[in-house]
Amino acid sequence: MKLYIAVGSVMLLMMTLFIILFVAFYQHRQAQHLLALNALREAYRKELMAATFQGQEQERRRLARDLHDEIGTMLSVTKLNVNQLDRKIPDVHTGALLLVQKTRALLDETMSNVRRISRDLVPTTLERFGLLAAMEELTEKATTGDVVVTLECPDMVDRLPASTQLLFYRIAQELLNNAIKHAAASQVNVQFVYFQDAIRMSVEDNGQGFDYDEAVKDRRSGLGLRNIESRLTVVDGHVTFDVAPGRGSRIHVQTQLTEVVNEELHIPA
Fold this sequence. Notes:
Helix 1 (2-88) packs antiparallel against helix 2 (94-121), helix 1 (2-88) packs across helix 7 and helix 4 (131-142) packs parallel to helix 5. Strand 1 (148-152), helix 5 (162-182) and strand 2 (187-194) form a beta-alpha-beta unit. This protein is elongated. It has eight helices and five strands, in the order H-H-H-H-E-H-E-E-H-H-E-E-H. It is of the alpha+beta class. The protein has a five-stranded mixed β-sheet, with helices on one face. It has two domains: 2-120, no CATH class; 130-265, Histidine kinase-like ATPase, C-terminal domain (Heat Shock Protein 90), CATH 3.30.565. It comes from Fibrella rubiginis. One of its GO terms (molecular function) is ATP binding. It holds the Pfam family HATPase_c. It is an enzyme of class 2 (transferase).
């Protein structure tokens, strides 16, 4: 009887141990499955966002081409017609001549705005000469009588991948616009710094600042901030907002560099 009890106890213990091991194995498989599923979801999300931003750039190019080829051409032809009309109006009709001159001035201003919008949509300087020249042009345009924008940028940024250069340029556009138009800053400094395996762009201003949480809640004003974060997640980058109402803002955008890029930039590991 004791033997039967001992054998039964051993078998019960073995069954209990088997059940525990089976449950542990099942939970481990489930955890691995969830990790793999989350990795697939994250990869899909990144691919979807990358495709979204690529589509946005293509749409920008289409709009820029339409502005230059169609609207720009129509404005040029209209200006030629106005010039011909000006030559045919007798000098005695001063009122008509003044109206023609005003119309010509409006056409010149409109054509200038069309060219500016077209350049903003597609940064031709970035494509032709690289990020350094594009950033110099961007900061120079942003500098006015009321705003001084300075740039600290090493020339090695031109050896970054084209996609990374476009990423920093678009983010710089957004941050400069926020600092000048929304934060009413009079001084803005843009600085690029290299690390062993990363590059960081810092934008600092002396504006009135803002509440990050409140800004993100606003569907319109927070769209630009969310776009910055979304762009960076595609390349495993991140952004730090050192902001508060009533004081200047410091925003740091950082992304990792691959070993190949580090070698090309001659950055020691």
